[in-house]
Design brief:
The chain has 244 residues and is mainly β. 4% of the residues lie in helices and 49% in strands. It contains 1 helix and 18 strands. It has one helix at 87-95, and strands at residues 2-10, 13-20, 32-42, 52-59, 66-75, 81-85, 102-109, 116-118, 128-133, 155-157, 160-162, 172-174, 177-179, 182-184, 190-193, 202-205, 210-222, 228-242. The strands form 6 sheets. A 5-stranded antiparallel beta sheet has the order 1-2-7-4-5, covered by helices on one side. Strands 3, 6, 8 and 9 form a 4-stranded antiparallel beta sheet that branches. Strand 15 and strand 16 (202-205) form a beta hairpin. The protein is elongated. This is TGF-beta family profile domain-containing protein. InterPro entries: Cystine-knot_cytokine, TGF-b_C, TGF-beta-rel, TGFb_CS. Belongs to the TGF-beta family. GO terms for molecular function: cytokine activity; growth factor activity.
Length: 244
Amino acid sequence: MSHFAVGETLNGQRLIEFRLGHEAETEQGLAVARAELLVRAEAPRARRPRYTLWAFTVAGNGSATRVGALAGATRGAARAWQRLDVTGAARRWAAAGARAPLRLLLDCSGCAGRVRLRLGGAAAARPLLRLTLRQHATRRRRALDCDAAARGRCCRQTYYVSFRALGWDDWIVAPEGYYANYCRGACAPILNYHAQVVEAAKLERAACCAPVRFSALSLIYFGADSNIIKRDLPEMVVEECDCP
């Protein structure tokens, strides 16, 4: 959703910035429900130093560049990827149109010589901004969902799988969950007429309400080496049900 870049420096510290991807641009704008900044911090396993990460917004350009408000902070955890809640800063960025990049300065108390922050290098280790958006009201396809279908007839039942509820949010970065959906309901009997039989016999063949169209799920997660991996998993979402 957001594209990362390493910006200029301020007071000897590198700035990071995020630009909105084209796929997330809408005429209605962004309604940010939650925003989380993920930063990879590397420290020797033999000793786990105590440190605190701070993220500040940055305003202005060139000689007028200055540090703004505190965007978020977190105490260093044992895991490689540290998470900072930057919802307030992301909402202000979205409210301004998100046309300019969201620029942040990262500072660390207790990191000197003991903890390395990965602010550049390979894409899989760069900082990541995870945005959770409020869903705009959309018109449903009435022919698909069970809440609009005739009682007991074949339809698609919405079913949400929460990765947080499953305890998988420690390794799945995005999404927080997804609508897997499933099919339920009965199908009208299909009558087959055999013309070769002198007395036409009606044979009922039972049809089953089943998925006829799927869509993929894009998953971003931490790999075995703690790098970030993006993978598209086919046929994870039931989009349409019918009686084939």
